[in-house]
């Protein structure tokens, strides 16, 4: 019995700011952003795109009417929750028109939560051969204007349909999680922006990867030679590269080093132009690898998920023959290429409106794709969504 990712898609807002422009506005050498952290552009979210609308937009093009009848659970992973009680999965379930006899929940553990959501879906489906689970990772990464974390912001969502006989990636039953209580990044109740211990966060990420990888290799008697490529959680593209480099020791062959390094560059191409999307970052990287790199069915991909606080996990999947036919590379490239570039002043206006929940539909919807869901208004703390005609 094989269970895994049958469909995968991402959605990002239709606005971005160029990192070189942001660097110059902040009095920073542009190379610090372009090469130091490895980011070229950063997605900017308007008020009209929150975790619900972005999540629904990521999912709407990959689920058929038959899927809507087969989906019996919707899980949203996020650290950008819009309600402390009601799960955003309930609203997404409604927008997508999924059959009513379904479980809908929201999961939280920083950037890691989409991974246990997938593991839960995998376990759940073992006893349900005719059902499917929709997993959505949706977030807006925000640290504040002129803050240390500003260049590692972003926004977007990734949707994955988990099913039997998947057409993209068969999940192996070999996940190795690693938990350690660390205050490297956290957002106490009532705080608009997270608190970050920058160096500790980088060290905790790398330590979590090393420990989960080392335990995985020991438990399953595996080496890096067994993997076509590795994918990482990507808060910024240089972060995962540091983790990868930490295990490319002298005893690793040059061929393996070259293969994994080239694969990493392919796996972070989309992330470089989107920025940090928290729970979706690993899975945006997976899409990037599948769509920009030459791989074959039957090859094994290793994935490292990380959420500050902290929980990491190393797990693997096997590519399905013909997986390329299921991808929508053209739509994804169009989504990236047809965005509107914002000046730094415009970006700051967007940022402030988002914080204050001040709608400007004339500006924001002018560059939104027709057919997309968007947040129309908030009245008495109730959010109402619509579809752009």
From TrEMBL:
<dbReference type="InterPro" id="IPR013746">
    <property type="entry name" value="HMG_CoA_synt_C_dom"/>
</dbReference>
<feature type="domain" description="Hydroxymethylglutaryl-coenzyme A synthase N-terminal">
    <location>
        <begin position="3"/>
        <end position="164"/>
    </location>
</feature>
<comment type="similarity">
    <text>Belongs to the thiolase-like superfamily. HMG-CoA synthase family.</text>
</comment>
<dbReference type="InterPro" id="IPR016039">
    <property type="entry name" value="Thiolase-like"/>
</dbReference>
<dbReference type="InterPro" id="IPR013528">
    <property type="entry name" value="HMG_CoA_synth_N"/>
</dbReference>
<dbReference type="Pfam" id="PF08540">
    <property type="entry name" value="HMG_CoA_synt_C"/>
</dbReference>
<dbReference type="Pfam" id="PF01154">
    <property type="entry name" value="HMG_CoA_synt_N"/>
</dbReference>
<keyword id="KW-0808">Transferase</keyword>
<dbReference type="InterPro" id="IPR011554">
    <property type="entry name" value="HMG_CoA_synthase_prok"/>
</dbReference>
<protein>
    <submittedName>
        <fullName>Hydroxymethylglutaryl-CoA synthase</fullName>
        <ecNumber>2.3.3.10</ecNumber>
    </submittedName>
</protein>
<feature type="domain" description="Hydroxymethylglutaryl-coenzyme A synthase C-terminal">
    <location>
        <begin position="255"/>
        <end position="385"/>
    </location>
</feature>
<dbReference type="GO" id="GO:0004421">
    <property type="term" value="F:hydroxymethylglutaryl-CoA synthase activity"/>
</dbReference>
<keyword id="KW-0012">Acyltransferase</keyword>
């Amino acid at each position: 019995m094989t269970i895994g990712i049958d469909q995968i898609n991402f959605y990002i807002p239709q606005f971005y700011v160029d990192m070189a422009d942001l660097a110059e506005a902040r009095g920073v050498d542009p190379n610090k952003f372009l090469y130091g952290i490895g980011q070229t552009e950063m997605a900017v979210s308007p008020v009209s795109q929150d975790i619900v609308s972005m999540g629904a937009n990521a999912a709407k093009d990959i689920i058929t009417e038959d899927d809507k009848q087969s989906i019996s659970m919707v899980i949203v992973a996020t650290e950008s929750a819009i309600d402390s009680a009601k799960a955003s999965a309930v609203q997404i379930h409604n927008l997508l028109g999924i059959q009513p006899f379904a479980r809908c929940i929201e999961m939280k553990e920083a950037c890691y939560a989409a991974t246990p959501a997938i593991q839960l879906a995998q376990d759940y489906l073992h006893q349900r051969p005719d059902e499917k689970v929709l997993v959505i990772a949706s977030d807006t990464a925000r640290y504040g204007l002129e803050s240390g974390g500003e260049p590692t912001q972003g926004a977007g969502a990734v949707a994955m349909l988990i099913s039997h006989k998947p057409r993209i990636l068969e999940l192996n039953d070999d996940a190795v999680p690693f938990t350690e209580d660390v205050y490297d990044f956290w957002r106490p109740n009532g705080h608009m922006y997270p608190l970050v211990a920058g160096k500790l966060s980088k060290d905790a990420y790398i330590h979590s990867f090393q420990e989960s990888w080392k335990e995985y290799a020991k438990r399953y008697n595996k080496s890096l030679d067994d993997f076509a490529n590795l994918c990482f959680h990507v808060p910024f593209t240089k972060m995962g590269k540091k983790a990868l480099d930490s295990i490319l020791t002298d005893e690793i062959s040059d061929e393996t080093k070259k293969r994994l390094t080239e694969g990493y560059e392919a796996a972070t191409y989309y992330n470089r132009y989107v920025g940090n999307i928290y729970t979706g970052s690993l899975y945006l990287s997976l899409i990037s690898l599948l769509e920009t790199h030459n791989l074959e069915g039957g090859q094994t991909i290793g994935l490292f998920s990380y959420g500050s606080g902290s929980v990491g996990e190393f797990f693997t999947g096997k590519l399905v023959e013909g997986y390329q036919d299921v991808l929508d590379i053209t739509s994804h490239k169009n989504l990236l290429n047809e965005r509107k570039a914002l000046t730094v002043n415009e970006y700051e206006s967007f940022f402030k409106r988002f914080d204050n929940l001040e709608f400007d539909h004339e500006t924001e919807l002018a560059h939104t794709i027709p057919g997309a869901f968007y947040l129309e208004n908030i009245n008495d703390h109730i959010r109402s969504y619509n579809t752009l005609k």
